[in-house]
Amino acid sequence: MKILGVIAEYNPFHKGHAWQINESQKRSQCDAVMALMSGSITQRGDFAILNKWERTQLALSAGVDLVCELPVAYACQSAEAFASGGIKILNATRVCDVLSFGSEGGALDPLNNLAKFLVAEPPVFKSVLKEALSAGVSFPKARMIAIDHLLGNEASTLLRMPNNILAIEYLKSLYKTHSSISPMTVPRQGCGYHSLAASEYLSASGIRNILKDALTKTGSEKTAFNALSRSLPYPVEKLFFPLKQNYHRHGDERFLNALRLQILAQDVYHLKSTPYVSEGLEHKIRDAVKTAETLDELVNAIISKRIPKTRVLRILSNRVLELNKQTLDTLQADAFFPYLRVLGFNKTGQAILKKIKDRSDLPILTNLKKSESCLNADQRKMLTYDCRATDLHNLFYENNYCYHRDYTQSPIRRNECHF
Protein backbone atom coordinates (compact mmCIF):
# COMPACT_ATOMS: atom_id res chain seq x y z
CA MET A 1 0.00 0.00 0.00
CA LYS A 2 1.50 3.31 -1.13
CA ILE A 3 0.37 6.18 1.09
CA LEU A 4 -0.15 9.83 0.21
CA GLY A 5 0.13 12.35 3.04
CA VAL A 6 -1.58 15.75 3.20
CA ILE A 7 -1.27 18.45 5.86
CA ALA A 8 -4.41 20.59 5.78
CA GLU A 9 -7.00 22.78 7.46
CA TYR A 10 -10.19 21.65 5.66
CA ASN A 11 -11.99 24.71 6.98
CA PRO A 12 -14.18 23.46 5.36
CA PHE A 13 -13.29 20.67 2.90
CA HIS A 14 -14.15 21.87 -0.61
CA LYS A 15 -13.87 20.94 -4.27
CA GLY A 16 -10.28 22.19 -4.53
CA HIS A 17 -9.24 19.82 -1.77
CA ALA A 18 -10.93 16.90 -3.51
CA TRP A 19 -9.21 17.82 -6.78
CA GLN A 20 -5.82 17.93 -5.03
CA ILE A 21 -6.31 14.45 -3.59
CA ASN A 22 -7.54 12.91 -6.85
CA GLU A 23 -4.83 14.56 -8.97
CA SER A 24 -2.10 13.67 -6.47
CA GLN A 25 -3.17 10.02 -6.36
CA LYS A 26 -3.12 9.85 -10.15
CA ARG A 27 0.35 11.35 -10.41
CA SER A 28 1.90 9.50 -7.48
CA GLN A 29 0.02 6.22 -7.95
CA CYS A 30 -0.74 6.19 -4.22
CA ASP A 31 -3.73 4.07 -3.26
CA ALA A 32 -4.41 5.48 0.23
CA VAL A 33 -4.63 9.00 1.70
CA MET A 34 -3.90 10.14 5.24
CA ALA A 35 -4.43 13.75 6.32
CA LEU A 36 -3.06 15.67 9.27
CA MET A 37 -5.72 18.28 9.91
CA SER A 38 -5.76 21.32 12.17
CA GLY A 39 -8.06 20.65 15.09
CA SER A 40 -10.03 23.46 16.68
CA ILE A 41 -7.84 26.45 15.76
CA THR A 42 -6.30 27.09 12.35
CA GLN A 43 -2.89 28.31 11.25
CA ARG A 44 -4.18 31.86 10.80
CA GLY A 45 -5.25 31.91 14.46
CA ASP A 46 -8.98 31.61 13.77
CA PHE A 47 -11.24 29.05 15.43
CA ALA A 48 -12.47 26.65 12.72
CA ILE A 49 -16.01 27.15 11.46
CA LEU A 50 -16.95 23.52 12.25
CA ASN A 51 -15.57 21.35 15.00
CA LYS A 52 -12.87 18.83 14.10
CA TRP A 53 -15.18 15.80 14.00
CA GLU A 54 -17.65 17.51 11.67
CA ARG A 55 -14.75 18.46 9.37
CA THR A 56 -13.37 14.92 9.61
CA GLN A 57 -16.73 13.52 8.48
CA LEU A 58 -16.66 15.73 5.37
CA ALA A 59 -13.06 14.79 4.54
CA LEU A 60 -13.80 11.07 4.85
CA SER A 61 -16.80 11.49 2.59
CA ALA A 62 -14.71 12.98 -0.21
CA GLY A 63 -11.54 10.96 -0.63
CA VAL A 64 -9.49 10.92 2.59
CA ASP A 65 -9.00 7.51 4.25
CA LEU A 66 -7.48 8.53 7.59
CA VAL A 67 -7.79 11.88 9.38
CA CYS A 68 -5.51 12.67 12.32
CA GLU A 69 -5.18 15.88 14.28
CA LEU A 70 -2.27 18.27 13.86
CA PRO A 71 -1.68 19.39 17.48
CA VAL A 72 -2.49 23.02 18.25
CA ALA A 73 1.14 23.60 19.30
CA TYR A 74 1.87 23.31 15.56
CA ALA A 75 -1.48 24.14 13.97
CA CYS A 76 -2.04 27.62 15.45
CA GLN A 77 1.50 28.86 14.85
CA SER A 78 3.79 30.25 12.15
CA ALA A 79 3.99 28.63 8.72
CA GLU A 80 7.38 27.17 9.69
CA ALA A 81 6.02 25.57 12.89
CA PHE A 82 2.87 24.35 11.12
CA ALA A 83 4.89 22.64 8.42
CA SER A 84 7.67 21.25 10.62
CA GLY A 85 5.17 19.80 13.08
CA GLY A 86 3.26 18.07 10.32
CA ILE A 87 6.42 16.68 8.73
CA LYS A 88 7.68 15.49 12.11
CA ILE A 89 4.52 13.42 12.64
CA LEU A 90 4.44 12.04 9.08
CA ASN A 91 8.12 11.06 9.36
CA ALA A 92 7.45 9.33 12.68
CA THR A 93 4.64 7.19 11.22
CA ARG A 94 7.20 5.58 8.88
CA VAL A 95 4.49 4.80 6.35
CA CYS A 96 4.03 8.02 4.37
CA ASP A 97 5.53 7.69 0.88
CA VAL A 98 4.53 10.99 -0.76
CA LEU A 99 3.61 14.42 0.61
CA SER A 100 1.26 16.44 -1.59
CA PHE A 101 0.74 20.17 -1.19
CA GLY A 102 -0.80 22.91 -3.26
CA SER A 103 1.11 25.82 -4.77
CA GLU A 104 0.19 28.75 -6.94
CA GLY A 105 2.34 27.65 -9.90
CA GLY A 106 2.32 23.88 -9.49
CA ALA A 107 6.05 23.55 -10.32
CA LEU A 108 8.26 21.82 -7.77
CA ASP A 109 11.77 22.85 -8.95
CA PRO A 110 11.56 26.60 -8.22
CA LEU A 111 10.15 25.88 -4.73
CA ASN A 112 12.83 23.24 -4.15
CA ASN A 113 15.65 25.59 -5.12
CA LEU A 114 14.42 28.35 -2.83
CA ALA A 115 13.84 25.93 0.06
CA LYS A 116 17.41 24.61 -0.23
CA PHE A 117 18.78 28.16 -0.22
CA LEU A 118 16.77 29.07 2.89
CA VAL A 119 17.90 25.91 4.70
CA ALA A 120 21.56 26.70 3.88
CA GLU A 121 21.17 30.32 5.11
CA PRO A 122 24.43 31.63 3.64
CA PRO A 123 26.07 34.53 5.56
CA VAL A 124 25.23 37.04 2.83
CA PHE A 125 21.52 36.16 3.20
CA LYS A 126 21.64 36.68 6.97
CA SER A 127 23.35 40.03 6.47
CA VAL A 128 20.82 41.36 3.93
CA LEU A 129 17.93 40.00 6.04
CA LYS A 130 19.22 41.78 9.14
CA GLU A 131 19.54 45.02 7.22
CA ALA A 132 15.97 44.74 5.94
CA LEU A 133 14.63 44.00 9.43
CA SER A 134 16.43 47.07 10.81
CA ALA A 135 14.40 49.20 8.39
CA GLY A 136 11.28 48.32 10.43
CA VAL A 137 9.48 45.82 8.18
CA SER A 138 8.01 42.46 9.21
CA PHE A 139 10.08 39.27 8.94
CA PRO A 140 8.16 37.92 5.88
CA LYS A 141 8.67 41.23 4.08
CA ALA A 142 12.34 41.39 5.08
CA ARG A 143 12.91 37.83 3.84
CA MET A 144 11.26 38.70 0.53
CA ILE A 145 13.51 41.75 0.15
CA ALA A 146 16.60 39.67 0.88
CA ILE A 147 15.64 36.96 -1.62
CA ASP A 148 14.85 39.57 -4.28
CA HIS A 149 18.27 41.14 -3.75
CA LEU A 150 20.18 37.86 -3.87
CA LEU A 151 18.17 35.57 -6.17
CA GLY A 152 16.01 37.95 -8.17
CA ASN A 153 12.36 38.78 -8.62
CA GLU A 154 11.27 35.34 -9.84
CA ALA A 155 12.38 33.75 -6.58
CA SER A 156 11.07 36.49 -4.29
CA THR A 157 7.67 36.42 -6.03
CA LEU A 158 7.22 32.86 -4.76
CA LEU A 159 7.15 34.28 -1.22
CA ARG A 160 4.22 36.58 -1.99
CA MET A 161 1.72 33.73 -2.21
CA PRO A 162 0.38 31.81 0.82
CA ASN A 163 0.35 28.33 -0.71
CA ASN A 164 3.91 28.76 -1.95
CA ILE A 165 5.04 29.93 1.49
CA LEU A 166 3.71 26.77 3.13
CA ALA A 167 5.08 24.64 0.30
CA ILE A 168 8.57 26.03 0.87
CA GLU A 169 8.28 25.36 4.61
CA TYR A 170 7.27 21.74 3.92
CA LEU A 171 10.30 21.32 1.68
CA LYS A 172 12.61 22.96 4.21
CA SER A 173 11.43 20.57 6.90
CA LEU A 174 11.84 17.55 4.62
CA TYR A 175 15.44 18.57 3.91
CA LYS A 176 16.27 19.38 7.52
CA THR A 177 15.01 15.99 8.73
CA HIS A 178 16.55 14.04 5.81
CA SER A 179 13.08 12.63 5.24
CA SER A 180 12.41 9.65 2.99
CA ILE A 181 9.05 11.19 2.00
CA SER A 182 8.90 12.36 -1.62
CA PRO A 183 7.36 15.82 -2.14
CA MET A 184 4.98 16.69 -4.92
CA THR A 185 2.93 19.79 -5.66
CA VAL A 186 -0.22 20.44 -7.66
CA PRO A 187 -1.47 23.87 -8.76
CA ARG A 188 -4.16 25.48 -6.66
CA GLN A 189 -7.49 25.46 -8.50
CA GLY A 190 -9.76 28.48 -8.88
CA CYS A 191 -9.75 31.40 -6.45
CA GLY A 192 -6.76 32.48 -4.41
CA TYR A 193 -6.36 31.51 -0.77
CA HIS A 194 -8.10 34.61 0.58
CA SER A 195 -10.31 35.31 -2.43
CA LEU A 196 -14.02 35.91 -1.95
CA ALA A 197 -14.78 35.84 -5.71
CA ALA A 198 -17.42 33.50 -7.13
CA SER A 199 -15.99 30.41 -8.81
CA GLU A 200 -16.52 26.70 -9.27
CA TYR A 201 -13.47 26.38 -6.99
CA LEU A 202 -14.38 28.79 -4.20
CA SER A 203 -11.72 29.46 -1.58
CA ALA A 204 -12.31 28.31 1.98
CA SER A 205 -12.54 31.99 2.99
CA GLY A 206 -15.22 32.58 0.39
CA ILE A 207 -17.19 29.53 1.52
CA ARG A 208 -17.01 30.61 5.18
CA ASN A 209 -18.29 34.08 4.31
CA ILE A 210 -21.23 32.64 2.36
CA LEU A 211 -22.09 30.30 5.24
CA LYS A 212 -21.92 33.04 7.87
CA ASP A 213 -24.14 35.30 5.76
CA ALA A 214 -26.66 32.49 5.40
CA LEU A 215 -26.76 32.04 9.17
CA THR A 216 -27.12 35.72 10.03
CA LYS A 217 -29.07 37.32 7.15
CA THR A 218 -32.74 36.60 6.58
CA GLY A 219 -33.59 34.91 3.29
CA SER A 220 -30.00 34.14 2.33
CA GLU A 221 -30.08 30.34 2.71
CA LYS A 222 -31.24 29.77 -0.85
CA THR A 223 -28.56 32.12 -2.16
CA ALA A 224 -25.94 30.21 -0.15
CA PHE A 225 -27.09 26.85 -1.49
CA ASN A 226 -26.92 28.13 -5.07
CA ALA A 227 -23.49 29.63 -4.54
CA LEU A 228 -22.05 26.50 -2.93
CA SER A 229 -23.69 23.79 -5.02
CA ARG A 230 -20.85 23.72 -7.59
CA SER A 231 -18.00 24.21 -5.11
CA LEU A 232 -18.39 21.22 -2.79
CA PRO A 233 -17.63 17.55 -3.54
CA TYR A 234 -20.65 16.51 -1.45
CA PRO A 235 -24.25 17.79 -1.06
CA VAL A 236 -24.43 21.30 0.46
CA GLU A 237 -26.75 19.95 3.17
CA LYS A 238 -23.89 17.88 4.62
CA LEU A 239 -22.03 21.10 5.41
CA PHE A 240 -24.84 23.55 6.05
CA PHE A 241 -27.18 21.62 8.34
CA PRO A 242 -24.60 20.72 11.03
CA LEU A 243 -23.49 24.33 10.96
CA LYS A 244 -27.04 25.65 11.21
CA GLN A 245 -27.79 23.39 14.16
CA ASN A 246 -24.61 23.93 16.14
CA TYR A 247 -22.82 27.15 15.06
CA HIS A 248 -23.06 29.93 17.66
CA ARG A 249 -23.25 33.21 15.77
CA HIS A 250 -22.00 35.22 18.76
CA GLY A 251 -18.84 33.17 19.19
CA ASP A 252 -16.55 36.13 18.56
CA GLU A 253 -18.20 37.99 21.44
CA ARG A 254 -17.59 35.04 23.75
CA PHE A 255 -13.96 34.87 22.62
CA LEU A 256 -13.51 38.59 23.29
CA ASN A 257 -15.05 38.33 26.75
CA ALA A 258 -12.73 35.45 27.64
CA LEU A 259 -9.75 37.54 26.52
CA ARG A 260 -10.93 40.46 28.66
CA LEU A 261 -11.16 38.24 31.71
CA GLN A 262 -7.72 36.75 31.16
CA ILE A 263 -5.80 39.85 30.15
CA LEU A 264 -7.31 42.46 32.46
CA ALA A 265 -7.23 40.19 35.52
CA GLN A 266 -3.44 39.96 35.38
CA ASP A 267 -0.45 42.26 35.24
CA VAL A 268 0.40 43.55 31.75
CA TYR A 269 3.78 41.85 31.86
CA HIS A 270 2.04 38.47 32.01
CA LEU A 271 1.25 39.03 28.33
CA LYS A 272 4.95 39.09 27.48
CA SER A 273 5.09 35.31 27.96
CA THR A 274 2.56 34.78 25.12
CA PRO A 275 4.08 33.54 21.83
CA TYR A 276 4.67 36.25 19.19
CA VAL A 277 4.46 39.12 21.72
CA SER A 278 7.54 41.34 21.52
CA GLU A 279 8.65 44.96 21.25
CA GLY A 280 6.32 46.20 23.98
CA LEU A 281 3.29 44.82 22.14
CA GLU A 282 1.80 43.67 25.46
CA HIS A 283 0.90 47.27 26.35
CA LYS A 284 -0.86 47.84 23.03
CA ILE A 285 -2.84 44.62 23.40
CA ARG A 286 -3.97 45.38 26.94
CA ASP A 287 -5.02 48.93 26.04
CA ALA A 288 -6.98 47.65 23.04
CA VAL A 289 -8.77 45.02 25.14
CA LYS A 290 -10.01 47.77 27.49
CA THR A 291 -11.91 49.61 24.75
CA ALA A 292 -12.64 47.20 21.87
CA GLU A 293 -16.33 46.38 21.47
CA THR A 294 -15.83 43.56 18.95
CA LEU A 295 -13.12 41.01 18.18
CA ASP A 296 -12.51 42.64 14.79
CA GLU A 297 -12.09 46.02 16.49
CA LEU A 298 -9.57 44.51 18.90
CA VAL A 299 -7.53 42.95 16.10
CA ASN A 300 -7.59 46.13 14.01
CA ALA A 301 -6.37 48.17 16.97
CA ILE A 302 -3.28 45.95 17.31
CA ILE A 303 -2.16 45.35 13.71
CA SER A 304 0.53 47.56 12.21
CA LYS A 305 3.11 47.65 9.44
CA ARG A 306 5.21 45.08 11.32
CA ILE A 307 2.41 43.15 13.03
CA PRO A 308 0.07 41.46 10.49
CA LYS A 309 -3.43 40.25 11.29
CA THR A 310 -2.46 36.56 11.36
CA ARG A 311 0.18 37.22 14.02
CA VAL A 312 -2.35 39.10 16.15
CA LEU A 313 -4.90 36.29 15.88
CA ARG A 314 -2.27 33.72 16.86
CA ILE A 315 -1.32 35.84 19.86
CA LEU A 316 -4.94 36.03 21.00
CA SER A 317 -5.58 32.32 20.46
CA ASN A 318 -2.41 31.30 22.28
CA ARG A 319 -3.33 33.70 25.07
CA VAL A 320 -6.81 32.24 25.54
CA LEU A 321 -5.23 28.75 25.48
CA GLU A 322 -2.77 29.92 28.17
CA LEU A 323 0.03 28.51 26.03
CA ASN A 324 3.24 30.41 26.84
CA LYS A 325 6.55 30.78 25.01
CA GLN A 326 8.50 28.43 27.25
CA THR A 327 5.98 25.61 26.90
CA LEU A 328 5.69 26.14 23.16
CA ASP A 329 9.48 25.98 22.78
CA THR A 330 9.46 22.64 24.60
CA LEU A 331 6.68 21.23 22.41
CA GLN A 332 8.34 22.43 19.20
CA ALA A 333 11.87 21.27 20.09
CA ASP A 334 13.56 18.99 17.54
CA ALA A 335 14.07 16.31 20.18
CA PHE A 336 10.40 16.18 21.15
CA PHE A 337 8.09 13.73 19.38
CA PRO A 338 4.31 13.98 19.72
CA TYR A 339 1.62 11.38 19.06
CA LEU A 340 -0.90 10.46 16.39
CA ARG A 341 -4.39 11.54 17.44
CA VAL A 342 -6.94 9.71 15.29
CA LEU A 343 -10.10 11.64 14.39
CA GLY A 344 -11.62 9.30 11.82
CA PHE A 345 -11.01 6.57 9.24
CA ASN A 346 -12.57 4.17 6.77
CA LYS A 347 -11.48 0.57 6.07
CA THR A 348 -8.44 1.71 4.12
CA GLY A 349 -7.61 4.15 6.91
CA GLN A 350 -7.81 1.31 9.40
CA ALA A 351 -5.22 -0.55 7.31
CA ILE A 352 -2.98 2.53 7.39
CA LEU A 353 -3.22 2.60 11.20
CA LYS A 354 -2.25 -1.07 11.38
CA LYS A 355 0.77 -0.37 9.19
CA ILE A 356 1.79 2.54 11.44
CA LYS A 357 1.43 0.38 14.53
CA ASP A 358 3.63 -2.30 12.99
CA ARG A 359 6.38 0.08 11.87
CA SER A 360 6.43 2.96 14.34
CA ASP A 361 6.79 3.69 18.04
CA LEU A 362 4.56 6.77 17.69
CA PRO A 363 1.72 6.61 20.26
CA ILE A 364 -1.63 6.19 18.49
CA LEU A 365 -4.50 7.80 20.35
CA THR A 366 -8.02 6.59 19.61
CA ASN A 367 -9.48 6.46 23.12
CA LEU A 368 -7.95 9.10 25.40
CA LYS A 369 -9.20 7.49 28.59
CA LYS A 370 -7.30 4.31 27.74
CA SER A 371 -4.30 5.60 25.79
CA GLU A 372 -3.36 8.81 27.64
CA SER A 373 -1.35 6.77 30.16
CA CYS A 374 1.11 5.71 27.43
CA LEU A 375 2.26 9.32 26.94
CA ASN A 376 5.24 10.95 28.60
CA ALA A 377 4.92 14.22 30.55
CA ASP A 378 5.52 16.55 27.58
CA GLN A 379 3.18 14.57 25.31
CA ARG A 380 0.46 14.83 27.97
CA LYS A 381 1.09 18.56 28.15
CA MET A 382 0.66 18.86 24.39
CA LEU A 383 -2.58 16.86 24.60
CA THR A 384 -3.84 19.18 27.34
CA TYR A 385 -3.71 22.13 24.94
CA ASP A 386 -5.44 20.16 22.17
CA CYS A 387 -8.26 19.31 24.59
CA ARG A 388 -8.41 22.90 25.83
CA ALA A 389 -8.72 24.15 22.26
CA THR A 390 -11.61 21.72 21.71
CA ASP A 391 -13.33 22.93 24.90
CA LEU A 392 -12.91 26.58 23.89
CA HIS A 393 -14.23 25.94 20.38
CA ASN A 394 -17.24 24.27 21.95
CA LEU A 395 -17.72 27.04 24.51
CA PHE A 396 -17.34 29.94 22.06
CA TYR A 397 -18.67 28.71 18.72
CA GLU A 398 -21.06 25.81 19.35
CA ASN A 399 -24.62 25.74 20.64
CA ASN A 400 -24.46 22.26 22.14
CA TYR A 401 -22.22 22.34 25.21
CA CYS A 402 -20.07 19.23 25.67
CA TYR A 403 -17.31 19.38 28.27
CA HIS A 404 -14.10 17.50 27.42
CA ARG A 405 -15.54 15.95 24.27
CA ASP A 406 -12.07 14.63 23.43
CA TYR A 407 -12.59 12.07 26.18
CA THR A 408 -16.06 11.00 25.12
CA GLN A 409 -15.97 11.16 21.31
CA SER A 410 -14.79 8.05 19.45
CA PRO A 411 -13.10 8.40 16.04
CA ILE A 412 -15.49 8.76 13.13
CA ARG A 413 -15.77 5.40 11.35
CA ARG A 414 -16.92 5.32 7.76
CA ASN A 415 -17.35 2.64 5.11
CA GLU A 416 -15.74 3.05 1.69
CA CYS A 417 -18.82 4.61 0.11
CA HIS A 418 -18.84 8.36 -0.45
CA PHE A 419 -21.93 10.57 -0.39
UniProtKB/TrEMBL annotation:
Name of this chain's protein: tRNA(Met) cytidine acetate ligase
NCBIfam families: PRK13670.1
Catalytically driven reaction(s): cytidine(34) in elongator tRNA(Met) + acetate + ATP = N(4)-acetylcytidine(34) in elongator tRNA(Met) + AMP + diphosphate
Function as written in the Swiss-Prot or TrEMBL entry: Catalyzes the formation of N(4)-acetylcytidine (ac(4)C) at the wobble position of elongator tRNA(Met), using acetate and ATP as substrates. First activates an acetate ion to form acetyladenylate (Ac-AMP) and then transfers the acetyl group to tRNA to form ac(4)C34.
Keywords linked to the UniProt accession: ATP-binding, Cytoplasm, Ligase, Nucleotide-binding, RNA-binding, tRNA processing, tRNA-binding
Encoding gene (name): tmcAL
Family as reported in the entry's similarity comment: Belongs to the TmcAL family.
Superkingdom field: Bacteria
Cell compartment(s), UniProt: Cytoplasm
Binding site for ATP: 7-20, 102, 163, 188
Gene3D superfamilies, per the entry: HUPs
SUPFAM superfamilies documented for this protein: Nucleotidylyl transferase
Enzyme Commission code: 6.3.4.-
Enzyme class: ligase
Main location class: cytoplasm
